[in-house]
Model the fold of this input.
Amino acid sequence: AYSVGLWVWLRPTQGLEGATAALAEAYPGAVASDAIQSGGFRAETPGSFVEIYAVPRSEVVIQLECRRGLCPEAEVATTIARRVASKALDATNFIDPTAERPSPFVPRGNVKGRADRIWLPVSRFWLPIR
Done:
């Protein structure tokens, strides 16, 4: 009851307007709302308040669902959604799923299998060996 669900789509295939409209269709009582961004939607379910909107500057569609324990009224959910929208303006806040994330491989005991990368202490710092 005391939680927020947050879903973010970066550059959706159906476009920003199409994605927001498609998400709003899942909620029968969704109404158009310009409280956060123009072209957004607001819905109320028995257990939560939902805000659906797009941030054109970073090409993002956001769906925020704030449950009643955390958001007893719709204005609290709108305030949280505004904070999320301000963070979504900066595209560097998003994680690149294709970025390389190296992690050290240190075998312990009798380890079977193959390592993608082996790290050796060549100098003061551990350097990757490819």
